Amino acid sequence: MVHWSVTRVIAVIVAALGLLGTVAVVSAGPASAEGEAIQGTLRDLAGAPVVGVTITVSNDGGFSDSSVSDAEGAWAVEVPGPGAYSVLLDEDTLPDGTTPPTVNPITTSADPGTPRFINFRLGERERNVQSRWDRAAQLSVEGLRFGLVLALAAVGLSLIYGTTGLTNFAHGEIMTFGAISTWFFNVNLGINLIGAAVLGVITAGVFGWAQERGLWRPLRKRGTGLIAMMIVSIGFALALANTYLIIFGGASRPYADYDSQAGIEFGPVSLTPKDMISMVIAAVILAIAGLALLKTRMGKATRAVADNPALAASSGIDVDRVIMVVWISGAALAGLGGVMLAMTQQVSYLMGTQTLLLIFAAVTLGGLGTAFGALVGSLVVGMLIQLSTLWINPELKNVGALLVMIIVLMVRPQGILGRRSRVG
């Protein structure tokens, strides 16, 4: 029995490494193979490539080299080694009618053996916010968008906790897995971002299935305690994060589509089309998940298992099957959240790790083990994070949200929608 469990654990790790290894082999370009490079793609607001623009990369050590954007808008400069560099776009070489970027030059750094991607946002101008109320309106919409992205991951994490009792510290890495898989399908295979996102979400769901089938179920069958399983999840998360770093690299990389878009004005609020579409998609998916929990047979079985697994099993419910469905759907939701987060922040090997604490905050604030509580908690955390920048330094915005969570839990320990439970 022990040998079988260890074999399955190894199978899950090997499967993950094998899939990501495929990404590494296909995505390794000439620049990353030969050494460090700084590169990017110039596109206008309509998404068309901007040709013939000169980009100069230099550093304090006397290095300076230039590249001209080609027919696809791509440019690349090989640099002598890791370190800080200044990337300057020659505005005189821009086509007539193209608005220069608001940030020029851009200061960046080159990582060992990894290309650094730079995105000059052409045609955008900083909004002239006239009042604190205008900023509050803009930040509220941004907080709602971020809250919906958090909710996609938080709902899955809450369902997994509710049905298994596992506090999964590797859940953020599933977000990263979905984002990196989508990047692979989009950038390397040339699939449009919409189709690539669908494939990335499916891949994340399969990854969730592999984790449950090969790791967590065998540990449960052996009677492994929840504390021990939580520690396993921490180790698994660290292993995945470092695997992403080795294979994907330390640089943040954008998707090939919908990278630069002009904002659409709604009074004091400005939103890009991709932001609006992602918010609608997230809201629809969350609504479908909520209706499935309330109306479908599997949803009712999931709630029964979350309430009392032993009683659910004695009633004829296949608990293992329910948990498997929860893992697949939870991982798929997390993968979708990773894709939407990457559309705003670009794909990074640390994106899941950096978001995990906020996901836990949302789940805890809304109520452990409740999907609807996770949704409410995510929206509260998202709004607090953005609106707090009206008064505090943006670098501290996450701290403010966590402090509010602590205060709420001191007043209502079970969370916003959690139920009181008797201990002892």
Count up the domains. 2
CATH architecture of the largest domain: Orthogonal Bundle
Mean residue pLDDT:
81
Largest sheet: 4 strands, antiparallel
Our Rg estimate from Cα atoms comes to 23 Å
What are the secondary-structure elements, in order, as H or E? HHEEEEEEEHHHHEEHHHHHHH
Enumerate the spans where pLDDT stays under 50 for 5 or more consecutive residues.
Answer: 1-34, 125-129
Helix share bin: 55-70%
Going by helix content, strand content and strand pairing, the class is: alpha+beta
How much beta, percentage-wise? 5-15%
**Please, how many helices?**
13
Strands ordered across the widest β-sheet: 3-2-5-6
Approximate shape:
globular
At CATH level 3, the topology of the largest domain is ABC transporter involved in vitamin B12 uptake, BtuC
Number of strands: 9
Q: Termini separation (Å)? A: 34 Å
CATH class type of the largest domain: Mainly Alpha
